[in-house]
Amino acid sequence: MLHGERPNAWVSIFLPFALGYYLSYLLRTVNAVISPDLTSDLGLSAADLGLLTSAYFLTFGAVQIPLGIALDRYGPKRVEGALLLLAAIGAAAFAMGDSLGQLGLARGLIGLGVSACLMAGLKGFAMWYPPERQSSMTGYIMAAGAMGALTASAPVEALLPILGWRGIFWVIAVVAAAISLFIFVSLPNDSRHDGKETIAQAFRSVGHIFAAPAFLRFAGSAMFFTGGFMALQSLWAIPWLMNVNGMSLTRAASYLMVLNIGMLAGQLSIGMLGTRLNRRGVTPLNLIQVGFSMMLAVQICILMQWGPVMVMWFLLGVLSSVNAQAYIACASSFQKEAFGRVSTAINLMAFLGAFVVQWGLGLILDLLQGWDWTMVGSLKAAFVMLLGLQAVTLVPLLVKARRRVS
């Protein structure tokens, strides 16, 4: 642990993790902008597009539990460095793909490759920074992710006519390999931290977490608030803005950039103010309760087309910054030693939700349009269903929690 922060710690420790999470978020959201080109080049339906894009979330979420155990046993340097090489291979495979099956497998490999980028950063900060720095470091690495989402909006849209979507993924493959090398070279050496616990015991402890009411209290909102936001941000925001609000792709991409700027502003605000708010009695749970309630209200405004469109999407981005507080709020109900497994379990629920919402919205759109609904009507109906699920999962967060789990 860095009891006195080294002058080069920002470069040797924070920057490798920040670059990894930046790339992870860019890859999470880039399909929103390239979706029209993918659809026209490959003749994809809405369900095909949703399934293809959500393959990232499926593999990402599927490895969260073994990932948490691996981080505890082998450390963030080796785990994230190795996985980012898989992300580079996946990006290259995506650039060469010619069918839905090939692109789906490549996108799934990308999801696996970047699955450790946030959790490895949080684990590394716990190892190499003092406790009082944890809150701000978490806020700042989330801001790096927001920068990745920003890059995946208007900048990628501007590069599409020059490089095409295949060229963009070749560039991403090179960047992923370079970040992997940076991690191996820059980060301090890590070591095993598993003690005497066997892998079987580690997996059994995860089962107890999933069965705990304290975990289930947060699981639904992680799926449909955090996961639902990721599904909108990474794919369905662009079709919504183009069809419901009648925008061109260029203008819709600029509004997606506004959403991501809002997310960046929210994350930086939490990074700078989180410790002060906590000292005044404002807990991570309080931030979630207020943030999710306001997210629901803003999304209703977007659905009903109340208020300035740009302002509503900016506010949605700002409020989404409370999503990361679920890791801390849920883990606070468990023993400190279980933090890594609780946080990856919550992460699993978020990415499972993103997969379900992203693909599910595509299925609903195809179904309703098959019944002669318009695209606008289908989008609004699907969005209403999502908001209903969010409202239901908000209720447990507003009810008083049970006692701490041992």
UniProtKB/TrEMBL annotation:
A Pfam family annotated for this UniProt entry: MFS_1
InterPro entries per UniProt: MFS, MFS_dom, MFS_Efflux_Transporters, MFS_trans_sf
Protein name: MFS transporter
MF annotations from Gene Ontology: transmembrane transporter activity
Coiled-coil segments on the chain, per record: none
Source organism (scientific name): Azoarcus taiwanensis
Transmembrane segments: 9-27, 47-67, 79-97, 109-129, 141-162, 168-188, 209-232, 252-273, 285-306, 312-330, 342-361, 381-399
GO cellular component: plasma membrane
PANTHER family, per database record: CHLORAMPHENICOL EFFLUX PUMP RV0191, PURINE EFFLUX PUMP PBUE
Keywords per UniProt: Cell membrane, Membrane, Transmembrane, Transmembrane helix
Localization: Cell membrane
Ranges of residues in domain Major facilitator superfamily (MFS) profile: 13-405
Keyword Cell membrane: yes
Membrane-related topology note: Multi-pass membrane protein
